[in-house]
What does this fold into?
Amino acid sequence: MSPPPIRLAILECDTPLPRTRQKYTSYSGVFTTLLRAASETLFPPLPASLLQISAYNVVTPLDNNNNKNATNGGTGEQFPYPDLADIDAILITGSRFNSFDDTPWINTLVGFVKACLGSGRVRVVGVCFGHQIVGRALGVGVGRSETGWEMSVCGVELTGRGREVLGVAEGEGLKIHQMHKDVVYDYPSDVEPLGFSPKCEVQGMYIARKLITIQGHPEFNREIVTELLEARHEQGIFNDEIFEDGMRRVGDGHDGVLVARAFLRFLLDGR
It folds into this structure.
């Protein structure tokens, strides 16, 4: 008899840029592609039927305020969220927005993450902005980094526990796409640190069977990050020096599938 599927709700916190949107439709499409690829590298491989993915755009309020699967943003607005009874885990995506903003949709998201963490059953995966939202939900500060942008493929030094969780050999680090200048300032109590870098001391957090977060972007690839670098350069967000630095490393090898495989092992642990 087959085990029940893992019911994973992806909470979309942003919309991809045009070229990425044309290929993947949404960030849930980007993550689904990554997770399906990582599923095939597990031993034994995880059948697609055992990973049931749903998606929720949690930025845009609902038009119908009578929707039963809605969470109030504190201003009368309601945002779409799954019922906790209908899911086993959530994955919070990255975003161009500030994780520390006091806005209805972000406050609602923080509250929902707290509910998941307090449920004792629904597991939490956070990526970049999502990593920061989990930090905020756990009561630690999030905000601007004094060291500026960390972007394109960067190295992350792993703790011993980080190597164990991610499946990295002794003495080796992690290569991962980054796109952030906001950080989690401290590790919450009871959280196991996974890694650090010169620009970000809190690169990942872990509590077995409860949460795993990564500041980097395992779902990003050369094409996605190139589009982001070009757009932010055109908008004046990145000056020439930052843009050229990012473009030099955008095609470097990275460990996105390795990180996604760790996400899957986390979701499967104890099932």
In short: Residues 58 and 251 are 31 Å apart (CA to CA). The first helix runs from residue 18 to 24. The radius of gyration is 18 Å.
